[in-house]
Design brief:
Elements lengths: L2 H26 L8 H29 L5 H6 L10 H4 L5 H22 L5 H29 L3 H14 L11 H5 L13 H14 L21 H16 L6
Helix pairs in contact: 1-2, 2-6, 5-6, 5-7, 5-9
Length: about 250
């Protein structure tokens, strides 16, 4: 693989790692705050799955970069503008409905994406995706159950779920935007064309939302920029909380 391809692969890996780490960190905030004990444990396990996924992508990215950096350095010593995660991942957990709708939207996409990525010509990527897609199938089963139960539940739970869908819908188009790095790796079948997944994602989500007695918003606005390092103020707060220990005591180990 030449230097240009290595650079593209590095940025591709970093984007997926950032997605996983930021969502894992955000989901971990539910620890000890879940609606009941079993769900509290489930949320913590989902967060751990994402952090573990981030580690695999960061480790591979560090190897590809070849500068001797570690997964910890990539996670804890890059600034907000260097992160290229999706904006939807960094939004705060406004309430349980918001978190479950976000998780559902992302789970549907993850299952579709990782299934394709498991066929990547890059063996290491293929192995990571094959492991991660098994986790995402479980995540989707769980988040879809909450979508339907809360949508079909009380007037209050239905209202909160619809409000979350309305709030998050404009962030979902970013999931299907291809970066230059991803596009350049398509020819060698390393990456996955995100645009090809949008129709199936939309069909699945629409059917499930309707089953939950909820509605897809009739709105045209959308928010993008995360892949370019343009983030909301929420990411800065999240990173400050997440990175403070390593930045205060570099190299500290448990």
């Amino acid at each position: 693989m030449n230097n240009l391809s290595n650079n593209a692969l590095y940025h591709y890996l970093i984007g997926m790692a950032d997605d996983a780490l930021v969502l894992g960190q955000r989901t971990s905030e539910w620890c000890s705050r879940g609606p009941f004990l079993e769900e509290d444990i489930a949320l913590s396990n989902v967060a751990l799955d994402y952090v573990g996924r981030a580690r695999m992508f960061y480790q591979y990215a560090a190897d590809v970069e070849g500068l001797g950096r570690t997964e910890d350095e990539l996670a804890y010593f890059r600034d907000e503008r260097e992160f290229t995660n999706l904006l939807i991942n960094e939004l705060p957990n406004f309430d349980f409905a918001f978190s479950m709708v976000r998780q559902y939207f992302l789970d549907v996409n993850a299952c579709l994406y990782l299934e394709k990525l498991s066929l990547s010509s890059d063996q290491h990527l293929s192995e990571i995706a094959a492991k991660a897609v098994k986790e995402s199938r479980y995540h989707l089963k769980r988040s879809r159950t909450w979508l339907v139960q809360l949508g079909q539940g009380t007037e209050e739970s239905n209202r909160r779920m619809q409000s979350a869908i309305d709030e998050l819908w404009g962030y979902t188009p970013e999931m299907f935007i291809m970066t230059e790095a991803e596009a350049s790796l398509l020819a060698t079948q390393v990456s996955v064309d995100r645009k090809d997944l949008q129709q199936q994602w939309s069909a699945t989500v629409t059917a499930d939302v309707q089953e939950a007695n909820l509605q897809i918003p009739d709105q045209q606005w959308q928010v993008v920029g995360g892949r370019d390092g343009d983030h909301s103020e929420h990411l800065g707060h999240l990173l400050a909380h997440m990175q403070i220990l390593q930045r205060s005591y570099p190299g500290l180990e448990w």
